[in-house]
Amino acid sequence: MNRLRILAIASAILLVTIFTGAMLFIGVSIIPFWQSLPPSEFPHWFATNAHFIGNFMIPLGASSLLISIISLILNWRASGRGWLVVTTAAIASTFLVYAFEHSNLNATLLAGVPMEEAKITDLIILWRFWHWVRTALGFVASISTISALKQISCGIGQETNRIL
Known about the structure:
- By secondary structure, the protein is mainly alpha-helical.
- Helix content is 88%, strand content 0%.
- It is elongated and about 65 Å long.
- The relative contact order is 0.19.
């Protein structure tokens, strides 16, 4: 059982940090690219290409949340479960930000309704803000998952020593 608990946390570290890294990549490369486009061209680019980002990020985020929940359940009685609560809450919060902010912004951009260039620029700035909020939550989740592994693996070692 101890190996399963550690494997779940290690898997959570892997998926959560990949998810966070992908959000960081979007923040430092894709969003600046969007901002470099003439505002009149951005809605067409977004309508043509946004699904590629969503097709990668949504399953990656969902699997990060799922493995975080599994890790929390398997380690519920462990001394480091508080870190896993933080991880799960932070990853779940990235979905809340997506649900309440990004999905609305995406729908506006994908609606095909002509917009003034200033409105397009404002939407990109708003999208960028909420994206960095999500990225910060990803970093919180990554750090807390690593902290959970450290604390729980030390606790498992102490349990083993007491048994012997």
